[in-house]
Protein 1
Amino acid sequence: MSGRGWLIVFEGIDGTGKSTQCKEMEVYLNKIGIPVSRFREPTDGVWGQKIRKILTVGRGDVTREEELSWFIEDRREDVENNITPSLSANKVVLLDRYYYSTAAYQGALGLDPDSILRENENFAPVPDRAYIFTAPPEECLARIESSRGSHSSFEKLEYLKQVQKIFDSFQGTNIKRIKSSGAIEDIHTQLCEDVHQLIES
Ligand code: TYD
């Protein structure tokens, strides 16, 4: 029988440390011999490249609806090329950002978060676990600015506060909120315990 694998996504506003935790989880699962794949969205595909361009140079005359459609197209490709094949191979799939980010970030631009979630769930598998990393947006912004020396248009404080508010509103038994103000190792340990429970249940 072909497997179903596990889809575990890492979500939250910029600067919460989710990418670090996602990478550490990959290292850990590899070390203990559990087959794992790690991906990130936006991807490095054609849609992802278009998105990253507006992230660095600004949206210009690209409308928020158009931008939303790029995120969706990028995700369709990711699901088809990366996520579904890895799940079918019975792997643990770790994903740095997924459709909760679209609902929160594009929702914070004024689009409807619920309909964004629904549109995504029509084609994208629902994650077995979604870790939503939370930290005060002020702290996150300070972290981003000190590590990069600058910030993009996506990283303005008021916007991030709104994004955080939408992340806070998501409900579901698959969602776990992770306070990201603790030590990296402590959060990693907490996540490892949860992942073991998930994949051994
Ligand atoms: P991020 O993972 O922070 O990339 P980087 O590794 O370059 O820091 O993602 C880039 C930005 O894209 C981030 O600010 C959130 C935004 N984003 C959306 O607005 N909608 C989405 O659906 C996704 C996946 C990301």
Protein 2
Amino acid sequence: MERFLMFIDGGWVEASGKEYFGVENPATEEVFAEVSSGGAGEVERAVQAAHRAFREWSESSLDDRRSLLRRAAELVEKRAEEIARYLTMEQGKPFKQSVNEVMNAAYALRYFSEEIFRVYGQVIPLPDREHDSVVIWQPVGVVAAITPWNYPVQLLSWKVGAALAAGCTIVAKPPSYTPISPIKFIECFADAGVPRGVVNVVTGSGRNVGEYLVTHPLVRKVTFTGSTEVGKRIMSLAAQSLKRLTLELGNQTPMIVFDDADIELAVKGAVRRSFRNMGQICNSINRIYVEKSVYDVFLEKFVEEAKKLRIGDPFDPGTDLGPMSSRDSLKKVVEHVEDAVTRGAKVICGGKRPDGELFRKGYWYEPTILADVTHEMKVMREETFGPVVGVMAFESFEQALKWANQTEYGLVAYVYTTSLKIAREAARRLEFGSVGINNVDVTSVEAPYPAWKESGLGHDLGRSGLMQYLETKHIKIHY
Ligand code: NAP
């Protein structure tokens, strides 16, 4: 069985106790590889290495940083299919989408390698003529990056790209369900000649490796993407030493379709963002509010289009949807659908494991649409993180906005309308960090991905995402 090691202080190493954990293919339930299981000792070595490397890397020229990030991006692009093969095997997304994810990761590295040149300082005019206030930005220090399994390469690239461009060194802890594709991504940095200690990877459990990292006194910043529950725990642990924090957490995503919307476009968006990656995206749609007069026509077309999605072997080029990523994820989906049905929801599409020999093993579930839903149901209140969506009719703008905002989360919401006035008003009043108007693709590397309310703190991406790896310094000069 193939084995994968950790990258610490410029070398590939095993855990001191030589323990490994298995990685399962969610399409077949077969354990196909083993990954080194790190602990406190490996975290210590990695953080010490990152700390030693920090001084030199933080003072490296922007040109050197750009060259490294570009060389790594080139290798990621060159090896995209190899990395994507592992990604599909451990996560389950269709191979074409895995290649796409890896290419997007390379793009993020290129973006941050350039954006750092546009982080300008300031000279602030003061009331007297004898002083100047100069503001510069300096790298925060050693960064711990903890990431989830749904986009394990892309989400890591946002953090590694920004941290390295800013002059920080980093210790990454990939998710235990999908550790291999992030390791292969980091291998591109190793092969691109990253200086010793600047990038490190420690694999192992979140409770163990993750918490050692979050509490290590030499780690100055924690950047975490994952569930709100774990985010809160990390925040409390990081508070002990007031570490800088970026938390990109869960969501309960509403979509509002007004009666003047382009219904074909809205249906296309609903299908894409409810079911892509089996609904395992932080911005996957959980609940759709449709204005009463177009509810029936929307629902009919939505079901018609959802039924066209092909679920099957993720390596088959015709496949739209693979399996869910784990037994636990599937269990939650089944539980949420059962809860909804018990409370009176009607399954109008899916609602079960697909039929056929291929689906006997693995974590399969059909794309599922629920009608006659209420806000008491889990699907309408919690993050299902699966291919399940509830659809409900609304009667007025105020009602739709009230329902959409009625959640502790605040990451993303979508609105479909052809009225500029409605679009403007809805975008302003929705209490979410991103609002997609007539589109469901709100993440752009160039723009921030802000998390409001219990969806997080700070954010990845864009110039302001890069700024999260920099500390402000005020230098006051007397002439
Ligand atoms: P998770 O259970 O919170 O795990 C995320 C990462 O945290 C994993 O690497 C995990 O390690 C680690 N971890 C677990 N417990 C920890 C602890 N006590 N201390 C430190 N680290 C710990 O989340 P997930 O199930 O992987 O991902 C799904 C969630 O991520 C969803 O809620 C989704 O909305 C959210 N998400 C948010 C965004 C965004 O940008 N806002 C993007 C993608 C996903 P192990 O794997 O070893 O347990």
Protein 3
Amino acid sequence: MVDLVMEIQRLKQERNAVILAHNYQLDEVQKVADHIGDSFYLSKVAANSKQDVIVFCGVRFMAETAKILSPSKTVLLPEKDAGCPLAEMITAEGLRSLKSKYPDVPVVCYVNSSAEVKAESDICCTSANAVKIVASLPGRKVIFVPDENLGDYIAKQVPDKELILWKGHCVTHAKVKPGDVNQVRELYPTAKILIHPECHPAVVDLADFVGSTSEIMRYAKESSESIFVIGTEMGVVYTLKETLPTKQFFLLHPGLVCPNMKKTRIESVYQALQKNQYEIHIEAEYAARARLTLQRMLEVV
Ligand code: CIZ
């Protein structure tokens, strides 16, 4: 039987490739990755990497972001159907129609969006820098797409802004209800409950800490507490258990499993390197504008 880990290492050398894995990837994929992190961190790694080939273990918008920022590199998404329902909740046409109702209002798009939607926006953001990006814009009104839960969270952090929100949401984070938080508080009264801002506002209101995946991980590392309940995708619990073995981590809700993130298996990574699949191409028509939207974000944070 082929030792996939060894074969992946061999192909990586042969093809001068780097493997990037999002925090939400399966344990077996994180184990063969050269870098693990959120989409923003991984895109910066991709842009600065010396390798010719980037295998992006995540979902489509993440691999697209890496390609937009590194146009001369070959970017591979190991599972071609690994999409993001949230990113698919808005189209460029829908955004153009919203913009026509609010001329001159700047548009911030969450990184969970297609290249076409990015091209139609003024500046991009991730959950780690969304508050800073919105606060940096001139004027009172801001159009924020496509995650209305994250938008609601930002609006509360930047009260001098009026956010015009698109009605999109992450179907995985939306599974958590306030009752789930109350239940775990009873079960683990000393635990700190760390929640992603893609959860519903009524859930976010009950958190001890709200943050992106990288912020949740930093909080758990720096905290003097030892028990944590994690309100984001279960891949983060895997990384936390690996990196902080003396602390205890529990998943807030059993449904916090993104089926698209879990499509990528170690076999998919092997096939990606062996067959050069599935290569990301961005239409020239909107690649340059999408790059500007991402570069503006990089200038602020
Ligand atoms: O930006 C990312 O990678 C996502 C989708 C979530 C997060 O909080 O890291």
Protein 4
Amino acid sequence: MGNTNYNSAESDPGEAKPESLDFIREIVADDLANGRHASTVTRFPPEPNGYLHIGHAKSICLNFGIAQENKGGICHLRFDDTNPAKEDIEYVDSIKEDVQWLGFDWGKNIFFASDYFEKLYAFAVELIETGKAFVCELTLEEIAEHRGTPTRPGTNSPFRDRSPEENLALFQRMRDGEFADGTRVLRARIDMASPNLHMRDPVLYRIRKVPHHRTGSQWCLYPMYDFTHCLSDSIEGITHSLCTLEFEVHRPLYDWVLDNVTIDRRPRQIEFARLSLTYTVLSKRRLLTLVEEGRVSGWDDPRMPTLSGLRRRGYTPSGIRAFCKTIGMTKFNSLTDVALLEHSIRHDLNDTTPRRLAVLRPLKVVITNFDAGAVEELEAPNHPKNPEAGSRTVPFTREIYVERDDFMEDPPSKFHRLGPGREVRLRFAYFITCNEVIRNAAGEVTELHCTYDPETRGGNAPDGRKVKGTIHWVSAAHAHEAEVRLYDRLFTVEDPNREEDGKTYLDYLNPNSLEVLRDARLEPGLANAAPGERFQFERSGYFCADTVDSQPGKPVFNRTVTLRDAWAKKQKKG
Ligand code: ATP
Ligand code: MG
């Protein structure tokens, strides 16, 4: 049956192999098997009015994925740029960058709906000529009032029965800029009693005396989405026009337009559920507000669900693609746990990311029986399960830093790390025992005095003595000071989109979504990390050198994701 191989995906390790086709791929396979189409042409049609987010990634993976999976399949990148007031070239550029970064290539198939303005105008003229569209002088509010409700039919516009000649002349004058914004629109002449409100003489064109980022001031008349989209699909020879569920009710209009103009290629619209994530907002309007109000540092703030934010945070394209494959395609809207996205990234990073030692909140340890001035170079593998990743050496000296959290003055029995009189293993190094706790005048612990057992080099005692805990460390003299940014979820509630009790998503912002540690100590090699380079800091998480603020010699690291799902633990406790 059809062409259903998944070669391109299988060659990517770490991505799950699909068990069966989703309902869209089934339709596609069927169309190919029945000869309805020789191959597939899909499109990803962003409006350049914001940056792409993880929801768009679902659509990109679907549309470009189908092109890759089917012989001869292609996917267009089409900018749906019909609303000049909100669109910008900055967004066009960022969208291109993000699609490429995700791993997809549109080749020469990049299009702009604005390139079709002349053709679309001609289609509108055809509708007017056949009596299927008219110029209406009601205001938008009046049009809304006339529309009726799902149970009450609308009323016809008093301008509905103008002659085609009269309409053609008026439409031309609209194009010529003779009328002010909002004074006239072009409407389809369908059925004001249709149970589908979208079919009640919908607006096709409106006047907007706003310059367009591509066509300049050539047009003051802009086509609406429902008119533009189906015709752009037909002009480009799209076979399967895949969109989110809210367009299901627009489908009769999509088909009506195509049925009532002269076209030679007939696309089919199929709807799927949009991605919604817990603890996340994915509406471009809301994301824009977060940026404009300075709630985040920009579209690429690492807490943003934008592709540019996730990239800066350290997410990998393959991890995001694997996530999109995992969630699959359905016909009903639901909320996906953001932990699943985090899991996909963690899983993707695990196999490939080199391990390093970094102490985020340092506490000094003096190893009193180790020679001052002596330096021992200890071998440390770069990956615990992958010998091909090689190894490096880390310097061990009399003074080291350990994680403040790895010491407890009065530890409970389940705490297997450092405490007075307790012995632990230093990763790749020796067993040490804590003998003395040093405090400042305020009573705070400032230093631990420990002794090491020289017999335990490499982490094992010849006498078979066991320790339960292994902690990470760095040599104080060699460590590099760095800024580390710990990110957490941007919202404190599962569904920040739900508006209740007069609250909006802005009321649910997590005040602790960013913690900046300025005093972290890194093992020496990390000082020269290249921006964008990723590491696992042992026992802490995956980190990525910030692409904006990090410089070799002065690194800044972003925490991509913790090693375990800290929220699941918190919820269980709570
Ligand atoms: P938003 O609602 O966030 O403003 P949009 O739908 O207006 O997004 P577009 O630029 O029109 O954004 O979207 C481009 C494509 O991406 C469309 O085909 C749209 O259906 C799809 N898309 C947008 N958001 C999601 C999502 N959350 N899940 C899946 N697909 C999405
Ligand atoms: Mg849209």
